[in-house]
């Protein structure tokens, strides 16, 4: 999608690490909005400034890290410090039931976990690609891990 690429290029120009997350990252299309995870935490005021001054966005929701393109494409930004990146990417990629399962496992939020692979290791699971994360995998005896 051209708009998604434009947002990623904008972030790159800002010197940000920004990656897609949410349903789009799981390969689901269409989506209600584009979701991105940013490494590093900005104040609400800084977000408001960046979103209001970016020509990609027609409007934004003050204090919420949400914006809309000129064509009405909704965008939501999440943010996290690098040591928690892996857990944040799992949490924001979803789906909700899969995240709840991961959060219930021993080791959730034990830092550092700077990658999803590290976060999966912390909770005792092998890495599972986003497009394969669903509830039926949790019913396997190994907790859904794939060799």
UniProtKB/TrEMBL annotation:
Protein name in the entry: Uncharacterized protein
Superkingdom to which the source organism belongs: Bacteria
